């Protein structure tokens, strides 16, 4: 089967518009669903972070009221505990080459807005992966990481590409609201991407060639299934 690179944020806080620090990290459901389904399909998933730092889970993503109920929160917590060795010893992005992977997966949480969006090693990997037609699958706030991919002339590698990401409306109504330091979907549009969003909090997946993106946590399963299907073709 295929070797998959899962790029995870190592940021545990995000500076908000008012200057305060907001606890963050990766969103549990997104990492759990993608990792669980990919490994169940027989793929080898390598978790990597900037500088090999241990990725923190966003505390809100394990809050029963936020994720829907206590059983779901416990399901996510139990799975993270089961892969604790992988999470505690991630690969270092700077040591990796896109040539070694069939796909790059970027789950969200607000953390990518603090580090992955500006990470030069991730940018290099994404440029290489896109040039090699490797699959690239970001979802929710994970598409913030795409902003790190710059062409030799400084342009955005994914300008003109069609994708989806956590919508401005979702950020306003269920995210950080007016205190968000910047909007992922709006910024991607400003950089030249064609961002297509569906109704807030509904599963929505967009494919443009080797780019398979999901809008929100509700899209986690659908974007992973789409990735597995393409890997199997």
TrEMBL record:
The keyword Lyase applies. Its EC number is 4.2.1.130. Gene3D superfamilies: 3.40.50.880. GO terms for biological process: methylglyoxal catabolic process to D-lactate via S-lactoyl-glutathione. Residues 28-229 form the DJ-1/PfpI domain. It is an enzyme of class 4 (lyase). It comes from the Bacteria. InterPro entries: Class_I_gatase-like, DJ-1/PfpI, Prot/Nucl_acid_deglycase. GO terms for cellular component: cytoplasm. GO terms for molecular function: glyoxalase III activity. The keyword Lyase applies. Belongs to the peptidase C56 family. HSP31-like subfamily. This is Molecular chaperone Hsp31 and glyoxalase 3. It comes from Microbacterium azadirachtae.
């Amino acid at each position: 089967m295929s070797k998959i690179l899962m790029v995870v944020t190592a940021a545990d806080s995000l500076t908000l518009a008012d200057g305060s620090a907001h606890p963050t990290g990766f969103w549990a459901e997104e990492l759990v669903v993608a990792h669980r389904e990919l490994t169940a399909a027989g793929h080898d998933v390598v978790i990597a972070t900037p500088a090999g730092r241990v990725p923190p889970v966003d505390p809100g993503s394990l809050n029963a009221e936020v994720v829907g109920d206590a059983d779901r929160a416990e399901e996510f917590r139990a799975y993270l505990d089961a892969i604790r060795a992988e999470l505690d010893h991630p690969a270092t992005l700077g040591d990796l080459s896109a040539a070694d992977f069939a796909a790059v997966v970027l789950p969200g949480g607000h953390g990518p807005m603090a580090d992955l969006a500006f990470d030069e090693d991730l940018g290099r990997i994404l440029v290489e992966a896109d040039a090699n037609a490797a699959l690239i699958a970001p979802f929710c706030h994970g598409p913030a990481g795409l902003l790190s991919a710059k062409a030799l002339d400084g342009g955005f590698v994914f300008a003109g590409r069609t994708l989806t990401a956590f919508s401005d409306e979702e950020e306003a109504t269920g995210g950080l609201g007016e205190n968000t330091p910047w909007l992922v979907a709006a910024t991607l549009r400003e950089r030249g991407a064609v961002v297509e969003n569906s109704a807030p909090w509904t599963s929505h997946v967009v494919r443009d060639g080797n780019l398979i993106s999901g809008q929100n946590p509700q899209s986690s399963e659908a974007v992973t299934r789409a990735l597995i299907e393409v890997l199997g073709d």
